Amino acid sequence: MPVFGVKNSKGCFLVIAEGYKYEMNVVFGVKEGLYYIYPRFIIQEQDGIPYENISIRVMRLDDDSDYGDMAVKYREYKLNRKDCIPIMERVKNCPELDYAAQSPEIRIRLGWKPAPAEILEQTVENEPEMKVACTFDRVCDFIDELKSRGVDKAQICLVGWNKSGHDGRWPQAFPVEEKLGGESGLRNLIKYAQENGYQIVCHTNSTDSYNIADTFSKDIVVKKANGSLVKNTIPWSGGNMYDLCPVKAVEYAERDLPRISDFGFKGLHYIDVMSVVPLRWCFDEKHPLNSKQTLECYIKIMNMCHDLFGGFSSEGVFDFCAKYLDYGFYVAFPKIDDDMLDEEIPLWEIAYHGIILYNTSTTTVNYCIKDKNSRLKLYECGGRPSFYIFSKFLEGCPSDNWLGKEDLTLTTDEELRFSADKIAAAYEEFKKYRHLQTRFIEKHRELSEGIFEITYSNGERIVVDYNSGDLELKR
Which pLDDT score is estimated for 421? Predict the structure, then answer.
């Protein structure tokens, strides 16, 4: 969010970057006993001249305002500028979003190659074997279990349905992975899910590329100013992961998304990480881009998702996606250990609840098999229940716990029933609160130590008690 707030003896202020905002960082610290905070704008252009004027808006709030008032003010600012539209308005013309607001998100990772990869530049000849975790037919079995437990609504997202599984060969998607059941098996699964009342979508990628892709070349990769290729520091399942230039990403989306839509998918289509990585700069003279031009490319892709599938979802909730993002897989990572951090506050959630669906944190994914605080945190921050089947796939890597050490799996019938039981119980509780997904959060406050009250725009309140583990809806 290109925004920060300050409250001191001189008053309460909200600071919003308006021009050149995608290049803003917030700098803060303590010097000689005094706090300081200011925006820093990073000049990326080779000639040192920003592509637009830097501009900042400072708004004064009432002296007794707090972080909640700052968030509400920012929401009003965004709505007044038509930078985003409330869910309550969008669902009038989008049944897929209306359905998603009433249902949990269930992501199922179907197959993957070893990650992090040992073979960094993969070819068809040396490509590692893909692990089959869950076939399309097995997902049908899981649907049966969910239905038998009273789960009448859920959006299922298939991860790794594509050639060589999750992060296998992007930007190559086809053919549908035969080891999972091939195209006929995928079409059958989509039809079966929809016949049982479920919304079903899939996971694709418009930001990354691997050497093994059938159309890979250095020409599609983001270039630094010195002409070198930009790649991720961690090699994923497909090996070295190169940043896909957004200009090329649009070309691949125009080629592939209609074909994927033809399988029958309907819902909030998921594109990996687009909403959780900074907007890119590319210095390739054939397709140069600054961050604002990158956003123009991404908007084309996001609009394609709306037109073809009914909606757009992605991994995070970066502010530049606010007008087009329907659901974000998480708002934040867990609280970090930092001397400058006293407590976490749900600034983003207050600003955007009722505008974007979201899961609160990586710690609240699969909260139904975690400690009570994960469940309470989800409801304290207004999240939508989100689950990940086979969330753990990294091997020998300390990052394997980024969604938690716990996991939901479908390998055995016992595991399948366990996963269905846990999700069904979570869904039953969510039904009491899901009507609030379309409302704004107006106030968030700590009543006493460990007890929080969240007030919604319809007057209802949720009280979350971390001491007792109780959760209460008050009308």
Answer: 98
